Amino acid sequence: MVLMIEWSVTLAAIAFIFLVIFLILTLRKLMETIAETKETLTDARKSVTSITDEAEELIHEANKISDDVKGKMEAVDPLIESVHDVGDMLHDVTSSIKRTALKNENRKTIHTQDKEQNQPVRIKLK
Asked: Could you tell me the residue ranges of all domains in the chain?
C-alpha cells in the first residue's frame, strides 16, 4: 500500500511539474504578445497624432477656401442681379414687340418707316 501511495505522489509531482512548465510557456507567450500589442499601440498613437495634425491643417485650409469663395460670391452678386435685370428688360421689350406685331393686320411682318431714307423696313417674325 505504501508503494501505491509513493507512486501516486510521484505521478502527482510529475503532473504538477508538467503543469508548471506549461504555465511558464504560456505566460512567456502571453508576455511576447503583450509586448507586441504595446508596440502596435505606440505606433497607432503616433499615426493618429500625425493624421490629427494633417486633418487640422486640412480643415484650416478648407475654411480659408470657403471664406474666399464666400467673399467672391458676395462680390459677384450685384453683377448677377444686373444681368437678371437686363434679362427682365429684354423679356419686356420682346413681349412688347410681339404684342405690337400681333395688333397689326399682317401678323408675320412689322412695317416701320426708315426716316432717313423714307423707305419701309420690314422685320419678319417666325
From this structure: 10-100
